[in-house]
């Protein structure tokens, strides 16, 4: 049986760009009557590893006085209903853009797609994203639609793992995964440290990939191997995401990097099953501390964590959509240096705490050429 691979990747971001230094300055101005919060916000904005992010909400680029999402603004903060209306309007075009790029990159026609997995935790509406994309992409009306809703940052990689499992039982399956997250819609008009921390590094974006067995016309990017999912015990309160009156309220414990560094190595060892340490590490940049923790535990070099840090720096944490940005960044780096087949491991973390992980192999130019030669003489 031919190997199951990621055949194409597409990413997209909204048009509005948030410069970290500028956003920090405007937020500090909004907190001028609460100097302790202002100092803390300025510190965390500077240290979180983000330089730019993107948002679908132009009001977030307004002055402190006119930004409805900032504390002590003269305007009333958007309600959850307001934010969900923006999500419904903005999420579909962004998801569509990423999906079209992935289909083009994979050289797959919409008529070949047998399964559609849609992923999002920053908004909901019905009929949902899956129905909208089916119609606007022109997918078959009977395409198998699988919505992943409200599963957090790990859901994008979970969708990739599920895609591999589907394709392993049906070699003719072509699975389109589409993730879209509008995280900035949930910035809170609050001076609480938890709210300010969440406001410091989340961004908006969409990503997509096609998973299946490559045809003669297709070049696999990442061959997918074994996957593993674990729900860590007694960690449910470390990461919480609940619906509030002004969007979704996020809580991230400062203990998360330490917990990941303590408990995840055992799970990685279980997946590797005595095999060698991977050469590539596609780590979901849920925060700078998570990358730091895994870098320390595994003795990773700056080169090995560069794709994750680059995505965090340029886009922030886009929740479920982020991991495909990391894999795309990694793909581009490897292609630029003409790398051959290289083993890798991808990890993503979400509420629970849960961890999703999967082994992969970058196929490389050398692997593609070798495959062509083999096919020529069969």
TrEMBL record:
Keyword Cell membrane recorded:
no
Name the domain of life: Bacteria
Pfam families, from UniProt? Chal_sti_synt_C (PF02797), Chal_sti_synt_N (PF00195)
Family per record: Belongs to the thiolase-like superfamily. Chalcone/stilbene synthases family.
Q: Where is the Chalcone/stilbene synthase N-terminal domain?
A: 5-213
* Keywords associated with the record: Acyltransferase, Transferase
| Source organism (scientific name) | Paenibacillus allorhizoplanae
Protein name per its UniProtKB record: Alpha-pyrone synthesis polyketide synthase-like Pks18
| Entry EC no(s) | 2.3.1.-
Show where the Chalcone/stilbene synthase C-terminal domain sits: 234-358
One GO molecular function term of this record is:
acyltransferase activity
């Amino acid at each position: 049986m031919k190997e199951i691979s990621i055949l194409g990747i597409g990413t997209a971001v909204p048009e509005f760009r948030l410069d970290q230094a500028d956003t920090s300055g405007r937020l500090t101005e909004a907190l001028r009557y609460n100097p302790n919060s202002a100092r803390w916000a300025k510190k965390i904005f500077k240290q979180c590893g983000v330089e730019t992010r993107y948002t679908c909400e132009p009001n977030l680029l307004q002055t402190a006085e006119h930004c409805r999402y900032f504390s002590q603004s003269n305007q009333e903060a958007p309600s959850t209903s307001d934010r969900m209306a923006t999500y419904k309007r903005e999420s579909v075009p962004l998801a569509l853009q990423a999906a079209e790029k992935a289909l083009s990159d994979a050289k797959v026609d919409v008529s070949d797609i047998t399964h559609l997995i849609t992923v999002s935790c920053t908004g909901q509406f019905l009929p949902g994203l899956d129905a909208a994309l089916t119609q606007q992409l022109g997918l078959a009306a009977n395409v198998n639609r699988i919505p992943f809703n409200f599963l957090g940052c790990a859901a994008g990689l979970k969708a990739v793992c599920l895609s591999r499992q589907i394709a392993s039982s049906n070699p003719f399956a072509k699975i389109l995964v589409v993730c879209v997250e509008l995280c900035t819609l949930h910035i809170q008009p609050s001076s609480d440290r938890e709210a300010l921390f969440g406001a410091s590094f989340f961004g908006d974006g969409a990503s997509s990939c096609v998973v299946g067995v490559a045809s003669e016309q297709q070049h696999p990017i990442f061959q997918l191997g074994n996957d593993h999912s674990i729900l860590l015990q007694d960690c449910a309160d470390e990461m919480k995401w609940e619906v509030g009156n002004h969007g979704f309220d996020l809580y991230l414990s400062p203990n998360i990097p330490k917990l990941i560094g303590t408990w995840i190595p055992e799970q990685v060892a279980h997946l590797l099953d005595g095999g060698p340490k991977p050469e590539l590490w596609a780590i979901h940049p849920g925060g700078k501390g998570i990358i730091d923790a895994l870098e320390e535990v595994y003795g990773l070099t700056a080169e090995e964590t560069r794709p994750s840090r680059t995505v965090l720096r340029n886009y922030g944490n886009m929740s479920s959509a982020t991991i495909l940005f990391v894999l795309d960044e990694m793909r581009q780096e490897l292609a630029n240096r003409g790398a051959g087949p290289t083993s890798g491991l991808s990890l993503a973390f979400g509420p629970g705490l849960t961890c999703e992980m999967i082994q992969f192999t970058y196929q490389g130019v050398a692997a593609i050429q070798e495959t062509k030669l083999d096919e020529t003489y069969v």
